[in-house]
Amino acid sequence: MNGDLPACGVRICGTGSYVPERRMTNEDFAKILDTSDEWIVQRTGIHERRICDPARESTFDMARTALERALECAEMKGSDLDLIIVGTVTPEMTCPSVAARVGAAVGAVPAAAFDVSAACCGFVYGINIAQGLIRAGMFRTIGVIGAENMSSIVDYTDRSVSILFGDAAGACILKRDPDPRIGCLYQRLGADGTGWHSLYLPRKQRDVPACDVDNPIRLGNIRMNGKEVFRFAVTKFREVLEEAMHHTNLTAESVGQVICHQSNLRIIEAARERLGLPREKVFINIDKYGNTSAGSVGLCLDELWRAGKIERERPFVMVAFGGGLTWASSVWRV
Fold this sequence. Notes:
The chain is α/β, with parallel strands linked by helices and 334 residues long. It has one domain (1-334): 3-Layer(aba) Sandwich (Peroxisomal Thiolase, Chain A, domain 1), CATH 3.40.47. 32% of the residues lie in helices and 23% in strands. The protein is built from ten helices and 13 strands. It has helices spanning 26-32, 37-44, 59-74, 98-105, 122-135, 159-162, 226-247, 265-275, 286-289, 295-306; strands at residues 9-18, 23-25, 48-50, 83-87, 112-116, 141-149, 167-177, 183-191, 199-200, 223-224, 258-260, 316-322, 326-333. Strand 12 and strand 13 form a beta hairpin. The longest helix is centred in the C-terminal third of the chain and has 22 residues, at 226-247. The chain starts with 8 loop residues before the first strand and ends with a strand.
């Protein structure tokens, strides 16, 4: 989307997030796997991650709480929502959707509801879809959530993948605004399914491609070719971020914040250095939470929003990439 401004704008009215209380540190991994704090930090930048308590926390629970906090921040009620979109690859059930259950829990019935399965891009996919639907006149107020219970699909006997992921949810409330200058200035969604086997979650043996038959990770758990994903992420992340800034005439000086999917500190730092962005403009929380997939960007947005670091004078950029393989960007003025 680019070109002439539409007849209305889209305002971010509030944000919210949720992370479990339980911390799983690198030292905890060192007790069960052949690894160390130094080895993990050097390769990922992660020191700890939050993990759900299966007895009382799930994707639904995190998504509901994040949306409730976003509604409170926006001084709204669930009944003010016309639509709820949840980005997730870890729903408790494929039917009903997490979004429908969350809608019922917050009193949003009969608001429309659906889930988006775009892996780590789920929140940015959702926010781009939502703003388009508002500007098309189909909805007025939409709750967008990214929520992942990654610990439910991680094989903790495997060092290559398990150290990366944590659990979290982030949410925001979008509302139609009469000022057409407010909202999304540019967005991009993309996917390349030819690389699907680089990051996938097989449920049955027939879903495992020939190139991965010797993978020791158990069925029903996420599998990743680290080298291929790293190569894709470094290239695509930089490309999508450069494109977003170019199309909106943003520079390292004029951009407010760059909110990146928290996949790997080395990937984020490589892109930051390539674009000459100062450290204070590229938000980092992977050290505390790990890679929370679709929960990542929404969690970052909420932390920045509540800290007062989303400036009205300077647009901010959201960028994500993940399984599919997928990628997404979204440039916003508030």
